[in-house]
Amino acid sequence: MKRSRRSLTILVALIATSAFGVATSAQDATPTDTASHPIVGTWIVDTVTATDTDSPEIGIFHGDGTMVGLGANRTAGGSWEVIDDRSVMLTLVTVSDQGGVGFYAVVRGTHVLDDTGNVWTCDDCSFTVVGADGTVLDSGTAPASATRLPVQSPDMVGTPMSEVPAWTPAQ
Fold first, then answer.
1. 110: which strand partners?
2. Contact partners, residue 46, CB within 8 Å, separation at least 6
């Protein structure tokens, strides 16, 4: 039980901050320009769509092919490259060295935008958790999705954002 809870925590940390291994290919030649790709922007990410106990995270895709993920207790960095006008390949890495346990987690997957350009899904997202000694501790799939963070006026005070999914914090 401890292992599966720890694995889920690591998985959530990874995917959310959907989003972080650093591959330099995003800065190399790509089929289309990263700066003008519709993935560029700030996203509210549901890092593990199969559960409602993971908190939403923030994913920021930059026009230079880099990505930053900000979670409740973690950050991640990544690189992405254009596949076509509606999809990108992302590699995201986060590192932890707390409580005497060191590891890094890698999330990889194809992020596909819907027709509106305001929602993406990653049905093939995978994760790999690697211990400080290089041993693979866990791996698997974890589909994720996100909604673009909208600009809202100050009149929205006191109104929850519909883009942020509800969740039940894990105990």
1. 89
2. 54, 56, 144, 145, 146, 165
| Residue with the two structure tokens 């972080």 | 20
User: Residue 169 — very low, low, confident or very high, per pLDDT cuts 50/70/90?
Assistant: confident
- Residues 58 and 42: beta-carbon distance below 8 Å: yes
C-beta neighbour count of 103 within 10 angstroms? 21
How far apart CA 55 and CA 69 sit, in angstroms, is 13
Q: 116-140: per-residue pLDDT in tens? A: 999 999 999 999 999 999 999 999 9
Q: Where are the alpha helices (DSSP H) in the chain?
A: 2-16
Pairing of strands 41-46, 75-84: unpaired
Nearest Cα to Cα of residue 21 among 70, 71, 87, 94: 94
Backbone angles phi and psi of 118, in degrees to 5: -110, 5
* b/e per residue 8-26 (b: at least 16 CB within 10 A): bbbbbbbbbbbbbbebeeb
Taking the C-alpha atoms of residue 116 and residue 120, their distance in angstroms, rounded to an integer, is 10
Listed residue (164, 165, 137, 161) closest to 51, CA to CA:
165
